[in-house]
Automatic annotation (TrEMBL):
NCBIfam families documented for this protein: DHCW_cupin
Protein name, UniProt field: DHCW motif cupin fold protein
Top-level taxonomic group: Bacteria
InterPro entries: DHCW_cupin, RmlC-like_jellyroll, RmlC_Cupin_sf
Listed SUPFAM superfamilies: RmlC-like cupins
């Protein structure tokens, strides 16, 4: 990962890209650095991810509520002010949002699975 100089982020100026779910839609605003991705993600009401994700993330709920469902059947409800963190390849998870949610999601090389820990 390279060094990142001090900078402010005006999210209102970051382009939104649309991503269809199995149901509903998500909108991503993405900053990509070498080995680091920072996203402001909004799930519309009725959103269900179209895949099981195995990437690691740090997820912080800014507004609303969503469920992070694990492929093993566990489900975790997160509301404003809550977070979850997981390394790459340690869970298969997907997001569900009944009424819509806004998230800050950070992922990158620092979350790669290390079997020696």
């Amino acid at each position: 990962m390279s060094n990142i100089p001090f900078q402010t982020i005006d999210w209102s100026k970051i382009e939104k890209t649309e991503h269809k779910g199995e149901t509903g839609t998500s909108f991503w605003q993405t900053l990509q650095f070498d080995g680091l991705r920072i996203r402001l993600v909004t799930y519309a009401a009725g959103y269900l991810a179209d895949h099981w994700c195995q990437k690691g993330h740090i997820v912080y709920c800014l507004e609303g509520e969503f469920v992070s469902e694990l492929k093993n059947g566990e489900a975790f409800s997160l509301t404003k002010g809550m977070s979850y963190i997981v390394s790459d390849d340690l869970s298969s998870h997907r997001s569900i949002s009944k009424n819509g949610v806004k998230l800050l999601i950070i992922d990158g090389d620092f979350l790669k699975y290390n079997e020696h820990q």
